[in-house]
């Protein structure tokens, strides 16, 4: 059966009516490298780009009956771009969360040292008596 001449929309229709994987495989073969290149251009990471393409084809598989768009390639491109940008957002949020943790931790340490430095000798000796584990701090 020659599937090369069939439109993407027709392949999806045939897949939905027959559940024959060869129709879906043809769409994957047509678009895998294009979608990978789009995702890789955005992410600059091969593994993430491969993951995005798998996500996109999984979405197509799940939503193939809902896909009323005549331009299946355009739909795939849009989903690929959005999924790639979502990956970047996840990385940025994660990095910002990690950075804020270290900034808070460093601020706490700096403030603690400032408090120790601002105490007079008598207050420091009281701290050493009350908190013997901190003998090295501020000395």
> Structural class, from secondary structure content?
mainly alpha
- Tally the structural domains: 1
What is the CATH fold-level name?
Answer: Rna Polymerase Sigma Factor, Chain: A
- Using only C-alpha atoms, the radius of gyration works out to 29 Å
**CATH hierarchy class name:** Mainly Alpha
- Helical residues, percent: over 70%
Distance N terminus to C terminus?
84 Å
Would you identify the CATH architecture?
Orthogonal Bundle
Number of helices: 5
Compute the average pLDDT: 79
> What share of the residues does DSSP label as strand, in percent?
under 5%
Largest sheet: none
CATH homologous superfamily (4th level) name: RNA polymerase sigma factor, region 2, helix turn helix motif
Overall description:
This protein has helices spanning 8-18, 21-43, 46-63, 72-118, 121-130. With 139 residues, the chain is mainly α. It has one domain: RNA polymerase sigma factor, region 2, helix turn helix motif (Rna Polymerase Sigma Factor, Chain: A, Orthogonal Bundle). α2 runs antiparallel to α3 (46-63) and α2 runs parallel beside α4. The chain is rod-shaped, with a radius of gyration of 29 Å. The chain starts with 7 loop residues before the first helix and ends in a 9-residue tail after the last helix. The mean pLDDT is 79.
């Amino acid at each position: 059966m020659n599937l090369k001449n069939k439109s993407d929309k027709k392949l999806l229709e045939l897949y939905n009516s027959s559940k024959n994987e060869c129709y879906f495989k043809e769409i994957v073969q047509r678009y895998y490298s294009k979608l990978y290149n789009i995702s890789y251009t955005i992410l600059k990471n091969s593994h993430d780009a491969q993951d995005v393409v798998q996500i996109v084809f999984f979405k197509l598989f799940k939503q193939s009956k809902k896909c009323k768009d005549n331009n299946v390639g355009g739909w795939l491109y849009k989903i690929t771009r959005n999924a790639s940008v979502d990956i970047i957002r996840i990385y940025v949020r994660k990095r910002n969360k990690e950075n804020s943790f270290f900034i808070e931790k460093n601020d706490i340490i700096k403030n603690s040292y400032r408090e120790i430095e601002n105490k007079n000798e008598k207050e420091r000796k009281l701290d050493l008596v009350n908190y013997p584990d901190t003998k090295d701090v501020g000395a």
